[in-house]
């Protein structure tokens, strides 16, 4: 863009949209060379506009003297003044607010537009909002419900732009419902729906309670929003809807959104794989591509949402998310295919700059997502290789993004990624470190190196980093050098195995600090802690410190560390240097040191005196000198130390010194304070390498050092770094903490079930197959099988959805919601296959299956909920059903296993054994269970018929009945309940038929606890349905 | 995944467009300072040897690109992937270019309100809402002709 154009033709657009007065004003301002001149012009214009506005106000009541065009012109000028003054002149233009609001009321589009546009700019100021909010909201409501789409559009834009600047709109129920109404209305144009989706998002961001306050509204509105994705033909609405869903999944409730997985996968697959295939039958809408590449916007948005919905390997227990082992294999493979195609596309040569940007967008978005797909080691290593080939790219952005992506990959995928990088590309990375001139890239290189350092390569990497800091040609910002120093300190502490090397490097690092502006107390302090805690380091560190002190220029950090450590351990190196010489050394350094270091040296001196009283006269002289110090701290210290020495002399022994300056006890700070300063490294980066070597993770490094050095003393010190939690984690923990007291997921208990759900539920307890649900639109069949006879606690549940209408059912998706996903749940839902098709033709069917594995006893009322969502004939439907899996479902009938059959004597003896062992524990009684309506006129049924029906029911459940004739009115029943984690339980029951048509049940189980109750509840359900 | 703000200023640091999408600060002085800092940071960068991405604060990084004498800058969350925002910026500039016909800084100066109209058609709630250039231009020409 250059300034080749003259003023005259600068406005190419149609004439009636230009505002001549405004153009002249702007031209005037531009021709004014001096800032002062401009300022004068602005002020005179402001005065003029003020006069016009005042005049208009006086004439109120009469017809509008100012006129819409004039008003628009003046307000636009004020807006220009605001922008061009870099938003500083707010107060000078505030007088125009009233007339700006007046513009909103205009029925002329261009006037209304200028009004809204100006307010969009000014709404970032709370004083503006406070003044005009009520009036604006009123006008906003009128425009939202206007019959002119362009007015609605302006109102939606305004909400979308200022919705987050003030929460006044988001807490106005009329506005939130107004916007939502446009979003859900079948008659709104796609254009308005798109805008309303994003405006609604802006409101939701300011006020989550729009959706969370009222449960019913939450369910209803979220389903409405999700159904906007059903239109698979039109990606344009999808594009605007996904960010809204993204936000809901992240901050409101992800559980509603997990059912979108098949749809999202389909979009991604279409964009990345189908959209780019060169085959002639590539029938995909043009919109799936952009600049000859897959549509980057759709891809990044879909990937972002998928990343939220799929739990990463490290957050396995976050309940409401999808786990990779639970995702339909076909979908998982499709997603993986997308990643590999993106890598292929991303490494292709592209000429057009836009094409290259898009290429990178797609590549990095998918590569960063790949770690969520439980990739094979080979796949990871392939991604890494592809990425590393981009490190040599000429484009700086690509190198930056590649490094960023490698850091993420190494942190999330662990060893396979790390190995692939470090074994083949270390030289390359060091080369980048030394040649890059962009500090943000250098930072990424350092992060990457840090991420894959371990015991094996710590020396090479630390050496490379140290060279970088030392090299004078790297004029990088001091901040970076300081960050690198911190990282070196952490790495040496974490991975050093060689004491000598550890000490050399650490001191080298400290000695640097005077040359660069690194000023890190934390580094020398940490070193002192480590040395104190590891006796094997005492002597060697002290020796080296003396060497450093003897040099002319010792850095402040070296002096401080020396003052502290030599004070403690000088007695260990008397063969190298006498206390007297050490004292002289410190006395020399004293005068050039800053006050904090001086104070430390004073303490060192008295410690030296403690071990070598023969240097007393020098020490006393020194302290006496410092009594005159200008610094109060130094003066006080000298005075106190002098008195202590005198006291010792009077007593004739050094007891008081020994007590006051006892040897330093080991430090027990739990974590390395340096770890807080890792900066922008991803959450797990600090601990990645620890994962590979768990033995190291459990112990702490200084400790480790001493062990490796065969020290017999084991010392406690800092714990491994607490891994930082990322934002997603936090969001999830917030959500999962909303469990109710029974430990059930609140999401489960909040489901509103279909009115006649219980009928199918009861049928499912007693029958292995049948009808689960029927309505005028859909019929659902179920079938329960036990795929493996050895595992009677694992059930395969097949569902069939039949379309009963004459129309198509579209957008079919389901969710299986367990009562608990966290905290050791009673059962798990496994191997969920998504419905075989999302579209069911009239009278056609779709099928689906999943498995339930029962881990321990639970109440049948806590069975999984099946949520079915679909569209039919323009209506959006949700059916929530409970699919019964009871403890009785795990029974194996004695027809299959005759050995379980008991005779009466066995039954009685076992009953007695249970009574003796458990007493009333593990027993449950229920009397007066009324038989259901199928046994009509129960009073008239004979005992025989009643017992026959009971027998049939109980047998169908899988119980075994003892053959006996001695107690006619009672059935003696036995069975074995199976669970995965807690094993099998025996169960004995007496079911007594009363003449009045009711039944008493007494149930005993071989375990204390509520199992007996759970069994009786199943039976009661079947008998009374 | 949302744009925190869109800025456009020239080489001298004069602001041409400013749009905040979230509450950056209740203190207006702070947002003016932020703009000044962003200008200093970006104008000091070497576009040959430095990338188009730079961290700005502990909650924001900047994605920017220079077109002739104008810088277009977007502020986004630190965790966001950068390249898509370059797409945003590039598409925005392409639409401006097509709308004004070989756009230059003067077009943006004199028709700032139209540029805001274009921005509103492309970005609301910090998200991009339309990416089809044809669709955008068709809609914009209708709006531009409305009385």
TrEMBL record, chain A:
Record's GO cellular component terms: AP-2 adaptor complex
Membrane topology: Peripheral membrane protein
Gene Ontology MF annotations: clathrin adaptor activity
Biased composition (Polar residues): 687-714
UniProt-listed SUPFAM superfamilies: ARM repeat, Clathrin adaptor appendage domain, Subdomain of clathrin and coatomer appendage domain
Annotated binding of a 1,2-diacyl-sn-glycero-3-phospho-(1D-myo-inositol-3,4,5-trisphosphate), by residue: 69, 73-77
Every Clathrin adaptor alpha/beta/gamma-adaptin appendage Ig-like subdomain domain range: 762-884
Compartments, as annotated in UniProt: Membrane, Coated pit
Keywords, ordered alphabetically: Coated pit, Endocytosis, Membrane, Protein transport, Transport
A Pfam family reported for this protein in Swiss-Prot or TrEMBL: Adaptin_N
GO terms for biological process, alphabetical: clathrin-dependent endocytosis; intracellular protein transport
Stretches for region Disordered: 687-742
Job description of the protein: Adaptins are components of the adaptor complexes which link clathrin to receptors in coated vesicles. Clathrin-associated protein complexes are believed to interact with the cytoplasmic tails of membrane proteins, leading to their selection and concentration.
UniProt family annotation: Belongs to the adaptor complexes large subunit family.
Protein name: AP-2 complex subunit alpha
Source organism: Saccharomyces cerevisiae (strain RM11-1a) (Baker's yeast)
């Amino acid at each position: 863009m250059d300034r080749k154009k003259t003023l005259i033709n600068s406005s190419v657009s149609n004439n009636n949209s230009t505002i001549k007065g405004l153009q002249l004003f702007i031209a005037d301002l531009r021709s004014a060379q001096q800032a002062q001149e401009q300022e004068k012009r602005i002020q005179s214009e402001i005065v003029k506009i003020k006069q016009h506005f005042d005049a208009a106000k006086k004439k109120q009541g009469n017809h509008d003297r100012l006129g819409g065009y004039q008003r628009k012109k003046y307000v636009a000028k004020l807006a220009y003044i605001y922008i061009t003054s870099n938003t500083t002149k707010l107060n000078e233009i505030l007088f125009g607010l009233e007339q700006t609001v007046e513009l909103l009321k205009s029925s002329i589009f261009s006037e209304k537009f200028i009004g809204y546009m100006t307010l969009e700019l000014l709404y970032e100021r709370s004083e503006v909002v406070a003044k005009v909010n009520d009036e604006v909201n009123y006008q906003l409501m009128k425009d939202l419900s206007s019959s002119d789409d362009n007015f609605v559009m302006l109102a939606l834009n305004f909400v979308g732009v200022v919705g987050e600047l003030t929460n006044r709109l988001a807490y106005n129920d009329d506005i939130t419902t107004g916007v939502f109404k446009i979003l859900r209305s079948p008659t709104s144009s796609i254009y308005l729906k798109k805008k309303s989706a994003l405006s609604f998002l802006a409101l939701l961001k300011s006020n989550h309670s729009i959706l969370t306050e009222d449960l019913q509204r939450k369910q209803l509105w979220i389903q409405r929003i999700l159904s906007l994705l059903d239109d698979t033909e039109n990606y344009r609405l999808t594009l605007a809807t996904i960010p809204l869903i993204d936000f809901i999944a992240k901050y409101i409730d992800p559980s509603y959104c997990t059912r979108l997985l098949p749809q999202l996968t389909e979009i991604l697959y279409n964009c990345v794989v189908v959209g780019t295939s060169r085959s002639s039958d590539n029938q995909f809408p043009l919109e799936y591509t952009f600049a000859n590449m897959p549509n980057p916007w759709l891809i990044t948005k879909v990937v972002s949402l998928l990343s939220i919905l799929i739990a990463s390997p490290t957050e396995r227990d976050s309940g409401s998310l999808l786990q990779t082992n639970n995702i339909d294999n076909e979908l998982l493979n499709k997603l993986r295919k997308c990643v590999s195609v993106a890598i292929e596309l991303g490494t292709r040569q592209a000429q057009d700059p836009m094409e290259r940007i898009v290429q990178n967008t797609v590549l990095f978005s998918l590569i960063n997502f790949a770690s969520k797909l439980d990739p094979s080691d080979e796949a990871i290593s392939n991604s890494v290789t592809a990425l590393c080939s981009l490190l040599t790219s000429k484009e700086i952005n690509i190198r930056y993004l590649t490094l960023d992506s490698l850091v993420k990959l190494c942190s999330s995928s662990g060893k396979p990624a790390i190995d692939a990088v470090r074994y083949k590309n270390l030289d390359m990375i060091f080369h980048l470190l030394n040649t890059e001139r962009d500090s943000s890239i250098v930072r990424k290189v350092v992060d990457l190196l840090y991420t894959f350092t371990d015991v094996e390569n710590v020396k090479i990497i630390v050496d490379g980093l140290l060279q970088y800091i030392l090299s004078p040609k790297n004029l990088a910002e001091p901040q970076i050098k300081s960050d690198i120093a911190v990282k070196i300190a952490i790495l040496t502490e974490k991975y050093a195995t060689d004491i000598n090397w550890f000490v050399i490097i650490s001191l080298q690092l400290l000695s640097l600090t005077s040359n660069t502006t690194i000023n890190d107390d934390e580094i020398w302090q940490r070193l002192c802690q480590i040395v104190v805690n590891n006796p094997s380091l005492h002597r060697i560190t002290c020796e080296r410190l003396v060497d450093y002190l003897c040099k002319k220029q010792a850095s402040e950090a070296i002096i401080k560390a020396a003052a502290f450590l030599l004070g403690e351990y000088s007695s260990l190196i008397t063969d190298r240097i006498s206390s007297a010489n050490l004292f002289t050394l410190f006395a020399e350094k004293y005068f050039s040191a800053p006050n904090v270091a001086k104070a430390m040296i004073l303490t060192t001196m008295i410690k030296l005196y403690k071990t070598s009283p023969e240097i007393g006269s020098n020490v006393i002289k020194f302290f006496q000198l410092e009594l005159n110090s200008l610094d109060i701290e130094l003066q006080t210290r000298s005075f106190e130390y002098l008195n202590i020495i005198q006291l010792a002399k009077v007593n004739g022994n050094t007891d008081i010194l020994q007590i006051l300056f006892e040897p330093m006890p080991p430090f027990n700070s739990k974590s390395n304070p340096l770890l807080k300063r890792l900066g922008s490294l991803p959450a797990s980066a600090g601990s990645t390498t620890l994962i590979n070597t768990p033995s190291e993770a459990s112990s702490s490094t200084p400790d480790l050092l001493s062990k490796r050095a065969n020290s017999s003393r084991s010392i406690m010190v800092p714990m491994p770094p607490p891994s930082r939690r990322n934002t997603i984690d936090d969001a999830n923990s917030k959500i999962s903490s909303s469990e109710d007291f029974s430990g059930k997921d609140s999401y489960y208990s909040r489901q509103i079930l279909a009115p006649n759900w219980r009928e199918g539920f009861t049928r499912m307890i007693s029958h292995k197959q049948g009808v689960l649900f029927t309505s005028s639109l859909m019929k659902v069949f179920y079938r329960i099988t036990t795929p493996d006879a050895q595992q009677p606690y694992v059930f395969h549940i097949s569902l069939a959805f039949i379309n009963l209408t004459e129309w198509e059912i579209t957008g079919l998706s389901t969710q299986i919601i367990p009562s608990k996903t966290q905290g050791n749940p009673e059962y798990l839902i496994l191997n969920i296959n998504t419905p075989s098709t999302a579209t069911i033709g009239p009278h056609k069917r779709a099928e689906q299956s999943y498995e339930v594995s029962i881990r321990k006893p639970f109440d049948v009322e806590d069975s999984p909920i099946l949520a079915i969502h679909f569209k039919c004939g323009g209506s959006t439907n949700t059916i929530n059903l409970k699919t019964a899996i009871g403890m009785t479902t795990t029974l194996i009938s004695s027809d299959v296993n005759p050995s379980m059959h008991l005779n009466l004597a066995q039954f009685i003896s076992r009953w007695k054994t249970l009574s003796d062992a458990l007493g009333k524990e593990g027993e449950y009684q229920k009397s007066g269970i009324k038989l259901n309506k199928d046994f009509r006129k129960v009073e008239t049924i004979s005992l025989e018929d009643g017992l026959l029906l009971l027998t049939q029911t109980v047998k169908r459940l899988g119980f075994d009945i003892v053959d006996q004739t001695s107690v006619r009115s009672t059935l003696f029943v036995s069975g074995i309940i199976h669970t995965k984690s807690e094993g099998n339980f025996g169960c004995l029951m007496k079911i007594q038929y009363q003449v009045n048509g009711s039944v008493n049940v007494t149930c005993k189980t071989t375990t204390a606890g509520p199992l007996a109750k759970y069994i009786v509840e199943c039976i009661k359900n079947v008998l009374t349905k | 995944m949302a744009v925190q703000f869109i800025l456009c200023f020239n080489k001298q640091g004069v602001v041409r467009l400013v749009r905040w999408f979230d509450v950056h600060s209740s203190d207006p002085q702070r947002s003016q300072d932020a703009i000044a800092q962003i200008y200093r940071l970006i104008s000091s960068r070497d576009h040959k040897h430095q990338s188009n991405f730079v961290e700005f604060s502990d909650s924001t990084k900047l994605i920017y690109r220079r077109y002739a004498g104008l810088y277009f800058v977007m502020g986004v969350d630190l965790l966001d992937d950068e390249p898509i925002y370059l797409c945003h910026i590039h598409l925005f500039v392409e639409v401006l270019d097509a709308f004004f016909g070989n756009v230059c800084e003067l077009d943006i100066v004199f028709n700032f309100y139209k540029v805001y109209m274009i921005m509103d058609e492309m970005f609301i709630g910090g998200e991009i809402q339309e990416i089809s250039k044809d669709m955008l231009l068709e809609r914009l020409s209708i709006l531009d002709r409305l009385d």
